[in-house]
Amino acid sequence: FIVSLSPHVHGGDSIQKNMYGVLIALFPAFIVSLLFFGLGALIVTATSVAACVFFEWAIGKYLLKKETTTICDGSAIITGVLLAFNLPSNLPIWIIILGALFAIGVGKMSFGGLGNNPFNPALAGRVFLLLSFPVQMTTWPVVGQLTAYADATTGATPLAIMKGVINGAPGVSLDQLPDALSLLIGQNGGCLGEVSAAALLLGLIYMLWKKIITWHIPVSILVTVFVFSGIMHLVNPALYVSPVLQLLTGGLMLGAIFMATDYVTSPMSKKGMLIYGVCIGLLTVIIRLFGAYPEGMSFA
After folding, report:
1. What is this structure's pTM?
2. Is residue 32 a contact partner of residue 186, using CB atoms and an 8 Å limit?
């Protein structure tokens, strides 16, 4: 360390500035979720954010006996938004609240709060719900039902179709997949925040421009997925989709851009970030192609 006398110049970074910068970057994906899922997207997101903020306040004040609250630093809001973005738009409110309780109470506050949690709280909440309520967490509303919530018509997602082809499900073929443009825009079923790759890429560009994150983690994940899935596609194009479709489907973009780059739970060195990204990319493709779940991003 270089030790010098004061005065010192503040670098301008703060927890609040970076957290609210991430929220701005998430805004395009939120707008797209409202356009495609309507009322359901609004209910799920509002419930998740409110529950995460409440549980962080309540646990900090009454269980950890903290004198100051941390709900204004933006981290609880981000956890709520990211948890909502990993949920279907017809998920019952009580399940969302349980997921928020696990994300904040177990995934974050039980380790001492922001800066101490070993896993991304939103991902911890999502995995908890996926293992606890697999039917509700894998029932996907069809896009365009703007006023429907609990009674929304459901359908298969692109990842479910891809998994059905790999498993040899009758009547399922890769021809049923949407084209790349539809996947880029978001005209397909899935979690709230994952359907539009274009909206998520806008968020990535904003965060890189504002230097909220660096390129190492998201780029290493996406390149690894592209290369590994591309090799598998060349080996058997009738069974495995093109690497472009792998990049545009599921929660890959959401996880690579907004969740793997979490300050607390990602490496600090550039080399560590690249190794971390490569491992996540490999695990995601391995779980997608050979695992029991259609999606592998959260587990990776």
Report:
1. 0.92
2. yes
